[in-house]
Design a protein that fits this description.
globular, two-stranded antiparallel sheet, Lipocalin, disordered N terminus, 2 helices, mainly beta, single chain, twelve-stranded antiparallel β-barrel, 64% strand
């Protein structure tokens, strides 16, 4: 038989034994399955490091770093169209954790509107499929859009601001059943420096950048008007690249992320508050106005969780 149990506005369907099995006096166990662990499975499905809102922020940061200097004056100049597809494999080894894969795509457009002030937008879509303990399955279908402004000063300082919105149809089925549909609103800002000068070489083939950013997201869950979470994340990162030829640049990137605001979900706090990502990037320039990039990124350091992402992208400057 099945029991329906409401938890903080969410509905769990727990496969269990007949009612007589409840007579043991162990109120945390249903049919031999620990109920608190199934609450943890809900929390694992929406943990902050897998948030589509923050994935959108990470993608937008790359576009904002492409701010270009230009002539003064109101203008509609150097429009750039960018697109990318990505695939991620992830594994959560925690009790109640979910593992599987996620695929996504994005389309971006930005333009120089005044003296190198870049205005742009990015649209992302992703689909996630996972399985976990208690024969639980997860499916998440997400759409997100971001509007941003970016500016480079004195040919070394990079700054940017963005507003982000992400909407997800997110369900758990099987041993743990839940409607986790949500809308996330937030903003992000960053500041950093980048240059083509390095202390160990006079060559201009090197390029580097370092950036700090802060992103805030408020996720509202549709199953209950009182169910929402606030999350704030600080990020510091850097990358170093080298122009192997005029057609290829090889680089590596590192980012450290720390959640300085992280609401508990369903009474269970997040099991970790920081993680880091690391990976190489290959950029290819087949034409003067075309860039093709291939990135690999590994997420590590978050308790019991790891992921690996491959991303293929291209941009065209008109």
């Amino acid at each position: 038989m099945k029991k329906i149990i409401a938890v903080s506005g969410f509905v769990l369907t727990l496969s269990c034994l007949p009612a007589s099995s409840w007579a043991s006096g162990d109120t945390n166990t249903v049919g031999g399955v620990d109920f608190f662990t199934q609450q943890q499975q809900l929390a694992a499905a929406i943990q902050a490091n897998t948030s589509r809102s923050f994935n959108l922020v990470d993608g937008v940061m790359w576009y904002m770093m492409m701010a270009r200097p230009s002539d003064r004056g109101l203008q509609f100049k150097t429009p750039t169209v960018s697109t990318a597809v990505s695939g991620t494999s992830f594994e959560d080894d925690s009790l109640g954790g979910l593992g599987g894969w996620e695929v996504g795509g994005e389309l971006g457009l930005d333009v120089d509107i005044y003296d190198g002030l870049i205005a742009g937008l990015v649209y992302q879509h992703s689909f996630r499929d996972a399985t976990g303990s208690f024969a639980t399955g997860e499916r998440r279908d997400s759409d997100g859009i971001s509007f941003y402004l970016a500016k480079r000063f004195f040919d070394i300082f990079n700054t940017g601001l963005a507003y982000n919105f992400a909407s997800s149809e997110h369900r758990l089925t099987g041993g743990t059943t839940a409607n986790l549909d949500s809308d996330g609103h937030g903003f992000a800002g960053f500041a950093g420096i980048s240059d083509r000068k390095v202390f160990w070489s006079k060559s201009t083939k090197w390029n580097w950048a370092t950036t700090t950013s802060f992103a805030y997201v408020r996720d509202d869950y549709s199953v209950s008007s009182n169910t929402d979470t606030d999350t704030g994340r600080f990020t510091w990162g850097g990358n170093l690249g080298y122009d192997v030829t005029k057609y290829f640049t090889l680089s590596g990137a590192f980012n450290y992320h720390n959640f300085v605001i992280m609401d508990s979900f369903n009474g269970i706090p997040g099991r970790d508050d920081d993680y880091w990502t690391l990976g190489p990037r290959l950029q290819f320039y087949p034409l003067d106005n075309v860039t093709v990039s291939l990135d690999f990124e590994s997420m590590q350091g978050y308790a019991d969780y790891s992921s690996y992402t491959l991303r293929l992208g291209a941009s065209v400057v008109f």
